[in-house]
């Protein structure tokens, strides 16, 4: 038996362990053993009889929960087992809230605490009522634009007679039966969302060689429907350059990054972000673009899950549902897959998705592993040529490596293994059918 999400061992009782009981009750329940050391060895507890009498009442009086407190013995050593059930209401100790995460007990503060309390109440953040909001705070034109978009997407039909804005918002569950406006109504259709939620904007920054060298910046405000397109407009006019080519007499301008992928990232960030703290940030570097939003992934998903078909768990389901009905996003968890596909279609490597700084970051790389970059790496010329081949052709196989670079199988295997270890390439498939692709994970800017 190991210490884990629902098991904790302590050699002797201390009153601070009421925090552990609170944490278990706020999570999935668990067991706290008194008289067992960190190695899982029973060391015994001398005052077990006193604990059996006092602990049930103390837990009830201090935490408001009922726990089983059981006596056990092994090799003439006595120890105590405290069985804590999961509670649907939040359990505090001395005014603070705790939760079990893995094998640790964590104190809940700020936005995390707010999310926890709302979840226990069965309410999402975007469903909370804004008591000062009214129809005067709603941009009627934004609602009309949404109507056209929703009708075009065939996900929500509006007739020409549907001119009552409040009726439309009620239909979208953005106003409750008593006429109270929810946070989502203001964020989606408000004239000035920042008057109700000051971090509800997007920051854009152009940086030099380091993240501390800020060269230029902008802030994009507006409602949630406008923000993604406004950001793309600013990026297009002020920050991005385009390559020029011709097909016959037709001039073709190709942007550095796929706009469809950026828009999808921004829409996902708007629907999944935590709104009480930081703004969404768009950081532009010479070789990459990073979009970050505060708010970690739901516990059901990992960053690897995002690369395949997965369920959707929006942090702000009302906002996500209206986005879906307006034709802006899908409801099947395909957003990240679409981002990856758009980058590949644009000739770029798969974007790098990671959790950092309490949020989720998506990085699109422009031209990684170019000649200048590769010259700094301890790679042989075969490996550099192989990387260039993958960039031009999409992938390479062991057979192609041998043929194109004229090397034996053993050398091919050694070269490829080194590139895999450096995470410069990744493999897909098995056996002779294995393909090797560029992997952004090994790129260090």
From TrEMBL:
InterPro entries: RecG_C_sf (IPR038475), Schlafen_AlbA_2_dom (IPR007421), Schlafen_AlbA_2_dom_sf (IPR038461), WH-like_DNA-bd_sf (IPR036388), WH_DNA-bd_sf (IPR036390)
Domain of life: Bacteria
Domain Schlafen AlbA-2: from-to ranges: 3-108
Protein's UniProt name: Transcriptional regulator
Annotated Pfam families: HATPase_c_4 (PF13749), SLFN_AlbA_2 (PF04326)
């Amino acid at each position: 038996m190991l210490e884990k999400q629902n098991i904790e061992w302590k050699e002797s009782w201390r009153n601070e362990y009421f925090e552990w009981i609170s944490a278990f009750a706020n999570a999935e329940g668990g067991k706290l053993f008194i008289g067992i050391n960190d190695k899982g060895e029973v060391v015994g507890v001398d005052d077990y009889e006193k604990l059996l009498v006092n602990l049930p009442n103390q837990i009830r009086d201090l935490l408001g929960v009922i726990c089983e407190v059981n006596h056990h013995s092994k090799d003439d050593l006595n120890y105590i087992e405290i069985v804590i059930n999961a509670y649907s209401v939040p359990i505090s100790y001395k005014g603070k809230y705790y939760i079990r995460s893995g094998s640790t007990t964590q104190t809940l503060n700020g936005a995390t605490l707010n999310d926890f309390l709302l979840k226990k109440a069965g309410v999402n953040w975007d469903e909370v009522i804004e008591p000062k909001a009214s129809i005067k705070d709603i941009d009627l034109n934004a609602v009309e634009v949404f109507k056209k978009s929703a009708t075009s997407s065939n996900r929500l039909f509006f007739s020409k007679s549907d001119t009552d804005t409040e009726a439309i918002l009620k239909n979208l569950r953005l106003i409750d039966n008593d006429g109270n406006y929810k946070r989502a109504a203001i964020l989606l259709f408000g004239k000035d969302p920042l008057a109700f939620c000051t971090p509800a904007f997007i920051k854009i920054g152009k940086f030099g060689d380091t993240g501390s060298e800020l060269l230029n910046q902008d802030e994009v405000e507006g409602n949630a429907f406008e923000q993604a397109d406004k950001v793309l407009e600013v990026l297009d006019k002020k920050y991005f350059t385009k390559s020029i080519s011709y097909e016959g007499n037709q001039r073709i301008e190709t942007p550095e990054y796929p706009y469809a992928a950026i828009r999808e990232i921004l829409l996902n960030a708007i629907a999944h972000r935590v709104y009480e703290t930081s703004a969404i940030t768009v950081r532009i570097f010479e070789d990459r673009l990073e979009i970050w939003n505060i708010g970690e992934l739901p516990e059901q998903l990992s960053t690897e899950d995002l690369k395949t078909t997965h369920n959707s768990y929006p942090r702000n389901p009302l906002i996500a549902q209206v986005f879906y009905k307006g034709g802006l996003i899908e409801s099947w968890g395909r957003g990240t897959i679409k981002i990856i596909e758009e980058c590949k279609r644009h000739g770029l490597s798969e974007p790098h998705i990671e959790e950092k700084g309490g949020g989720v970051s998506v990085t699109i790389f422009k031209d990684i592993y170019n000649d200048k970059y590769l010259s700094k790496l301890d790679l042989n010329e075969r490996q550099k040529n192989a990387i260039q081949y993958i960039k031009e052709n999409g992938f390479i196989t062991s057979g192609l490596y041998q043929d194109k670079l004229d090397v034996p199988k053993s050398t091919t295997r050694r070269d490829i293994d080194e590139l895999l270890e450096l995470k410069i390439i990744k493999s897909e498939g098995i056996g002779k059918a294995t393909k090797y692709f560029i992997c952004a994970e090994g790129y260090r800017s």
